[in-house]
Task: structure prediction
Amino acid sequence: MDEAFAHLEGTETRHSKKELLPPDGGWGYLVCIGVGFTFMLGFGSSNAFGILFNDFFIEQDGASGLPLVIGVYNGALSISGFLSGIALKRYSFRQVGLLGAGLFILGDVLTIFVTRTYQLVFAFGVIRGAGFGVMIPVSFTAFNCYFTKKRTAMMSANQTMSSLASITFPILVTFLLDEYGFRWSLALIMAVDLHLLFAMLVMHPVEWHMIKAVDSQKPGDEGVVEIKATTPTRHESIQKSIIKIVYDNVELDLLRDPRFVSTLVGLGFAFVSDVTYLAMEPMLLFSYGYTKMQVATCVMVGAIADLIARFSLAIFTYFYTVDSRKIFFCGTCLTIFLRIALVCSSEIWYVFTITVISGLIRCSVQVLFPLVLVTAAPDRFPAALALHIIFSGFLMLIADPLIGLIFEATGTYLYCFLAMSVCCLICVVLWSIEYIVYRKKTS
Result:
């Protein structure tokens, strides 16, 4: 079967053979490793962005460009991730994935030579961000195709790899900068990111590695399996505009539900605060006069706290049922004060304490957001997720540059972190109003 369409559904052809099932191992372990490397390299270096480019932004007369780069990066990631999901309906994991890996590495190469902020916005923000966004749906989709019974355990392993990268990359980047300087550090990071090509090459169509199930049928019938293939109409796809493609793949009628809109907007603003905080905290600490090693250690401690919180939450929710939305709401409320608290003192013990608490609270945002989204649209999660990706992407494209303008206008990080608190406050106010309104209706 043509690799490009081996994992798709469409025109049905029937083959008489024993029932085939996903391998739940075998080649799937290589897919799991590929997914782990994708998230490890994608998220790891991004979490060390503030440390890596601190001197660059100082040479550019301030850090106002940092939120712009981060906003464009996450916006490109979200939009390309949505388009990647559409592309997977027509092309194979490897075809789409290699495109993403190629863009990611191209962004790395171009970043080595940047000398101005606008160049970094294009190379790192647009190209690299789009590349990572393309690879994320490929990784998740391939992973889910290969694993059923072992899915939770294997995803936990992937999450661990990603968390370990978040912990080690700040220290690694600090070491590279001290030993090799800025440009050579970028080159070495690019060399490491070349492994993404191999990570995408192992994303075979699951049909190549299906295993025979135990035949439970009797009257001499070997079982019939439906292998579905699609012959795409290329001419039609060329005629469609991008807007038409997006419209066909987004269920806009979900926006008629005020509760879903409240959830969508609240999650979006909470994400803006979280992502911008990760990028700007190192810059704040450098402004306090901390050394690169002190900043890297602080970021690492926050990542360790986040990892501990994730494990603790996983264990707790295994034994007890929790309300994900309420935990997310409480975590967002605490985050409002933690963003402000971080700019109240430059004492190292104080900053480390706030960073640890923020790391512990952060998992309520990063881990629980899919469950919160499910409660808003329980029967239409894929459509809800698509809208979340689009909204969050465009919101970051707007909000992060505005935070950069705030720094440029005031010359201090105080109002930037206040803006992050306001983003969380929007989520809290919206959900509080929703709770009050719908409580009255149900009472």
In short: The longest helix spans residues 151-193. Residues 47 and 166 are 6 Å apart (CA to CA). The chain has 17 helices and four strands.
